[in-house]
Specification:
Blueprint (H helix, E strand, L loop, with lengths): L2 E3 L12 E2 L2 H10 L4 H4 L9 H9 L6 H4 L4 H7 L2 H10 L4 E8 L5 E7 L4 E4 L31 H4 L14 E2 L2 E5 L2 E9 L2 E10 L4 E5 L10 E5 L2 E5 L2 E4 L2 E4 L3 E5 L4 E5 L13 H6 L1 E4 L3 E3 L2 E10 L2 E11 L4 E4 L2 H6 L10 E4 L2 E6 L8 E6 L4 E5 L15 E6 L2 E7 L4 E7 L4 E2 L10 H11 L8 E8 L4 E9 L1
Length: 477
């Protein structure tokens, strides 16, 4: 992977920063093309290739870049789909954390973090995704307008709502981010005045971006989620005659066949029962999040008229029945919201978590959804999130290595990756709970078992300067 960065930027060691371009890698391979390794017909001398393949499948991913320089045969083997299938069979796959940042000049940079070696790597820059008129014109001579949106709507659509010409001045923004089948995806967005349907995929095996089958509908600021190894896309906005128009449509991408299929549109049932035509025209329904949970997709929704957002619960998609139903009332009403009504959440080990930033300016609380009594419970201990008000995207949530992680920026402008090993629920309304006395006693015992000021641990950090957090994804390959 292009550049490698250490977890400590001030020490020049095996983890020190260095750049190796693909052209340089090719030159190095050419100079060693007549080496012993290339002349030998076997991957490893004196070993059958079947055994050598088993050895390579156990090699940590962090060393794949250097291993590809050994010979052409090693490079071919390490970039083959068969090797990664074998890694799954052997249980040697590795989870890496991928973080997308945006600099002051709207330049997007992806970073990958290996938790075993504690090494950060920088991914290749995303290629040009759209031309000035919203259609693809090839890769040469086009500049990538790197304003891929985080899930935040606030700054990007400020002043756009109800204006016909404002989007003409925007180069590119509002893409959604997703991950499925070991690859990262960047979907849609606005290019100048048009909502595009382009989809770009990053494959870590070949360390490159490529364009895949586009969505059937051009959309920006849509929400993504993964179920059954398929990538679902719902909602978002497009440009209508009066400004931005919300989308109810949904579709699903199957990476095994590189095809998109239609999904029934969200009913937006709460938006259909507004008391007057004036309110129906004024308040626009929009999907503010999407999370896979218990085999279904949960989509919280809001009615907006900038700068006001009104929570109206949400809807749930069941892939087995291929239909939408209304979200449980307690889940929708209590779902913690980030800026501009956006609701960020993550499922870890079967539990649905969300971060509630409303407690104070320099800390937040984690909430977990209890599906049995349809309520959100507070998790003990504050999350040290710095400057919630100044950043467009002050924090991200991830389910990484089976643990809940919060990614944020600390007081020194470093990206800080924090994990919690044990989460204890605090029932804010014990009298309304259906738990027995013994169960309540056990909960109280669990609460006081671990000091609340020690539950969050910083497991990785790196300098970010003024760059903003945009999104994070997990790949297990």
């Amino acid at each position: 992977m292009g550049a490698r960065l250490s977890s400590n930027n001030n020490k020049r060691s095996r983890n020190e920063l260095f750049e190796v371009s693909q052209n340089e890698a090719c030159k190095r391979q050419k100079t060693t093309s007549t080496s012993f390794w290339d002349e030998n017909p076997l991957l490893i001398p004196s070993l059958p290739d079947e055994i050598s393949f088993q050895i390579l499948a156990r090699l940590p991913r962090i060393w794949h870049f250097n291993a590809k320089l050994v010979s052409r045969k090693w490079k071919t083997a390490l970039m083959s789909a068969e090797l990664y299938k074998l890694r799954k069979e052997l249980g040697t796959t590795e989870e890496w954390l991928y973080i997308l940042t945006k600099s002051d000049g709207d330049k997007l940079i992806w970073y990958a973090f290996d938790p075993v070696s504690q090494i950060w790597q920088r991914l290749p820059l995303m290629p040009n995704v759209a031309a000035g008129d919203g259609t693809r014109r090839g890769l040469s001579g086009l500049r990538l307008w790197n304003m891929v949106g985080s899930s935040i709507i606030a700054d990007a659509i400020r002043g756009w709502l109800g204006r016909k010409n404002a989007l003409d001045q925007i180069a590119f923004c509002g893409s959604a981010i997703g991950a499925v089948d070991g690859c990262l995806y960047v979907l849609g967005g606005f290019c100048r005045a048009l909502a595009v349907n382009t989809v770009w995929r990053y494959d870590p095996i070949v360390n490159a971006w490529s364009e895949v089958t586009p969505m059937s509908t051009g959309r920006a600021y849509c929400k993504t989620g993964v179920l059954n190894q398929k990538l679902y896309v719902v909602g978002g906005v497009t440009r209508g005659r009066g400004g931005l128009a919300p989308l109810q449509s949904a579709e699903v991408f199957d990476p095994s066949s590189d095809t998109w299929s239609e999904v029934p549109s969200m009913p937006f049932s709460k938006a259909q029962v507004l008391p007057t035509a004036f309110l129906a025209d004024l308040l626009k329904p929009i999907a503010t999040g999407m999370t896979p949970y218990r085999g279904k997709l949960y989509v919280p929704q809001s009615l907006y008229c900038w700068p006001f957002f009104v929570d109206v619960g949400g809807e749930v998609y069941d892939p087995e029945t291929n239909s939408w139903v209304e979200m449980p009332a307690g889940m929708g009403d209590g779902w913690p919201a980030r800026q501009a009504g956006t609701k960020l959440s993550v499922t870890v080990d079967g539990e649905l978590y969300a971060l509630d930033p409303s407690s104070s300016l320099d800390s937040a609380r984690i909430r977990v959804y209890d599906h049995e009594d349809d309520s959100w419970k507070i998790i003990e201990g504050d999350v040290p999130v710095h400057d919630l008000t100044d950043s467009e995207s002050p924090y991200l949530l991830a389910g990484f290595l089976g643990k809940l992680h919060v990614i944020t920026k600390d007081v020194n402008n470093n990206i800080s990756v924090m994990k919690v090993d044990r989460l204890n629920r605090v029932d804010p309304n014990p009298s309304t709970s259906s738990a027995t006395l013994s169960e309540s006693t056990q909960r109280l015992s669990d609460i006081f078992a671990v000091p609340s000021d020690n539950i969050w641990q910083v497991v990785a950090s790196r300098s970010a300067g003024s760059a903003e957090l945009v999104s994070c994804q997990i790949l297990d390959i």
